Amino acid sequence: MAFIDCHFFSESLGLSTSMYVLLPQTTVGQIGLNNRSTGGKHPVLFLLHGLSDDHTIWLRRTSIERYAAPLGLAVVMPAVHRSFYADMASGPKYWTFVSEELPALARSFFPLAEERERTFVAGLSMGGYGALKLALRHPERFGAAASLSGATDIEAMARERLSREETAAIFGSADSLRGSDNDLFGLASGLARSDAGQPRLYQCCGTEDFLYEDNIRFRDHCRKLGLELTYEEEPGTHDWGYWDRKIQSVLNWLPLENGLANN
C-alpha cells in the first residue's frame, strides 16, 4: 500500500491539521505483503482515534496496513484531538470537520469512492462513539460503521469520566446531552423511526473494559429498535492487544465487494 502523511488547511477548524492515508497498490515484487487494488476509486474506511491519541496511533499500535492491503481498501485516519467529534462549545468545529470537510477534501486529494455502499467508518473508544455518530446522523453516506470499545453513553462519559471543565468546553454542559445530536441513544431511536436506509452496525467490547456496561446498554437499545447490529464480546480490557485483534474482525465483517471480504 501507499502511505501518505497528509498536511492540509482546514477551513472549518481555522488551522492546519493532518491525516494519515493508506491507498491500495497492486504489487508483484514486494516481499511480505499481499497488496491488491481493484483500480479506479477505492472503497474507503474512515478510521477514528480515541481520546488520548491522534491520527498516527492506528499505524503505531496495530498492523492496519497489513490487514487492509489484500482488501483493496483505502484507510483515512484524521486527527481530532480531545473533541469527541463535536462542534465544541469552546473550541473548533470538529463535527463539521469530520462529517463534511474531511470527506470532501480526502476525495479531492485521493481516488476514493463516493458511493454509500463503499464508504465505511470505524473507531475505538472516543472514535467508536464518533463512528456511530457519523453513521446514525448520516445513514445516507455510510454503508457500515463499527465501534470498538466505544464511548456509547456520552452523558455517562460527561458526568462520570470527564472533568467538569472539559465537559463544558466540548458540550457546554452534561445536562444538554440527552436527546441531542450528540446522544447515540437518541440518534438510534431517530434512525429507527425514519425512512432512511439503515447502515450496518458493528459493536464490540471486552468484558473487563470500564465501558462494558455502557456498551451493553447501547446494544440492548439497538436490538429493541430493530436496528441491524452485529455485537461481539470476549475477555478483554481497554487496550491495544484487544483492538488489534478486533479491527481484523471489523475488516472481515465489512461488506466489501468482489469477494475481498466476507459479508
Automatic annotation (TrEMBL):
Gene3D superfamilies: alpha/beta hydrolase (3.40.50.1820). InterPro entries: AB_hydrolase_fold, Esterase-like, Mycobacterial_A85_antigen. GO terms for molecular function: acyltransferase activity, transferring groups other than amino-acyl groups. SUPFAM superfamilies: alpha/beta-Hydrolases. This is Esterase. The lineage of its organism: Bacteria, Bacillati, Bacillota, Bacilli, Bacillales.
